[in-house]
Write a structure and sequence with these properties.
By secondary structure, the chain is mainly beta. 10% of the residues lie in helices and 36% in strands. Strand 6 and strand 7 form a beta hairpin. The radius of gyration is 17 Å and the shape is globular. The mean pLDDT is 92.
Amino acid sequence: MQYSKYFANKMRISQGYNDGNHKRHTTCSKKDYPVDETYGSSGSGGYFIAPFDCKIVRKYDAVSNYIWITSTDKVMTPSGDKIVSILIAHISASEFNDLKVGDTFNQGEKVVSEAVDANSTGHHNHVCAGFGEISGTGWAKQVVSGNEFWVLTTKEGTQKPEDVFYIDKSVTEIVDDAGINFKEMPPEEISEESTVNSFVEYTIKSGDTLSEIAKKYNTTVEK
């Protein structure tokens, strides 16, 4: 069984779920617990990597671009073995247009890049997670102090990120965790996964280059 790993090579959370306008997400009737991830810097260029084998289950574009992904099987989280669903917002438009419901990604593969849009003040992905498949449309409108916003909905409830993702320090460097207490993967599990997952099978598609494939899997052409 795969471990649910944090979704960035460099963690730099610019806004945790108790910070700024994210506080309303934790005080409404249907809560979620979002983080804004900037992938190591405040500029563009960062991207979300698959925390486990997953597939896109919904897309939506309005002022921002959104996708919902769900693990293809149960994964090991700090809260036990779970199906995990994730909402990702502020996605690069060029990438978003190429994505389709049903697209699959292997653990560690690039999924989407961060963007800036009318609903964000800088390049980042807004990310929140829950257990089980998405419920209903995958989100619900909430209102706090006259402000409307949308929260993730899943069949087994939304969760704090530290209850969903482990930190694998061989994958993720922590620049700023926004005070969130993530658990590290047990060292013996990292060692075992390094042996078992020493290769990934990838089917070449028309137009692929070795450099693009290497980037997707956070490796080099030489390796």
